[in-house]
Amino acid sequence: MVGQMQLHALARRIALAGFFALFLAGAIAEGRAAALPEADAPKPLDFRDRAFILCWHSFLGKKELDTDFGLDEVGAQLDRLKALGYHFIDLDDALFGRIEGSLNLVATIDDGHRSIAWAYDKVFSERGIKPALLVYPAVIGNSPYFLKAEALQALVEAGCPVGSHGYYHLFVTAKLYRSDKAAFEKEIFGSKARVEALTGLPSYFYAYPYGAFDQITKDEVARAGFLFALAVKPGFVYADRRLDDDYELPRTVVTRAGWETILAFLDRNKDSASVQGPEPEPGRESEEFPAPELWSGEPGTEDLGP
Q: Which of 119, 236, 213 lies closest to 165 in space, CA to CA?
């Protein structure tokens, strides 16, 4: 009888010890969980750190061309942007998310017209701006209206990054892919190889000619080894990469018709933690290049500045 009582008492002690062990383990686990941050809770999207990418083309001062400006006109544009409190950052910083605040702009120049060299020397460099150049190599060194290879190399040495803008500046869309796959691939793969040969540096960003693209274009641009692609669409590039599509980054073409709208939009958003619309139309490249006589000539003396 005594033995049975001792066994019952021992069983109770074991059960009680097990209960306390489970209680203690639960309390410890609960305490640890309370002490740990909510690692799985997603952070809210951050719209504050952003950059607005602008795109110029040529600098002859031909008022009949919506995307062409004289050197004095571009200088005045840049000075008005500075007066609003904006400053320019390099395209590299914008693409890789090195963005702080909402007052950031990026300068890009498309095509490779020879007036770019004048604009850089007389306007952009004097303001500490190194525009990114998007060129299509078929014309570099092969047309009197475009940069010579040595002039492009001089801009590279001055610190201007160079990306690809097609090879012949064709519409790189699904239609071209279906009708002439070789031409489609040359606009992407051939352009990358030739731009790298011209600059001696990797070409890792692409700008869709005319801003035209389809999903197959994005896929092939990525397959070619480009890390980013610039579209023509409204919007900002953000430091919070969840807000960006690396192969459809927004960019706004500077046009005579749209300049004041761009300026008003940037003024409206300079102190805003979120985007205050409506956003300006992103502009567009002409579907037909200007006639050669419109892209000829030198900038007038009034454009050269002091």
A: 213
pLDDT number for residue 39: 55
Give the separation between CA 287 and CA 211, rounded to whole angstroms.
Answer: 10
Buried b (16+ CB within 10 A) or exposed e, 46-70: ebebbbbbbbbbbbbbbeebbbbbb
List Cα–Cα distances, 288 to 16, 63, 109, 217, 284, in angstroms.
88, 17, 18, 21, 11
Q: Round to whole Å and give the CA distance between 136 and 206.
A: 10
For the stretch 203-232, pLDDT in tens is 999 999 999 999 999 999 999 999 999 999
In the chain, at which residue ranges do the beta strands (DSSP E only) sit? 50-56, 87-88, 104-111, 132-135, 162-164, 205-207, 228-230, 237-238, 252-253
CATH superfamily of the domain spanning 50-299 = Glycoside hydrolase/deacetylase (3.20.20.370)
pLDDT in tens, 266-295: 999 887 777 776 777 777 665 545 555 455
Model confidence pLDDT, tens digit, residues 148-173: 999 999 999 999 999 999 999 999 99
Tokens of 101: 């605040």
Which amino acid, residue 98? Answer: R
DSSP characters over 44-55: PP--SSEEEEEE
**Chain-centre distance for alpha carbon 292:** 30
Are 160 and 182 spatial neighbours (Cβ–Cβ below 8 Å)? no
d(CA 140, CA 148): 6
Q: What is the DSSP code string of 254-271?
A: --TTTHHHHHHHHHHHTT
Q: Cα–Cα distance between 203 and 194 in angstroms, integer?
A: 9
Sign of the CA dihedral running 300, 302, 303, 306: positive
Residues 6+ apart with CB under 8 A from 288: none
Instruction: List the domain boundaries for the chain.
Output: 1-39, 50-299
pTM metric for this prediction: 0.82
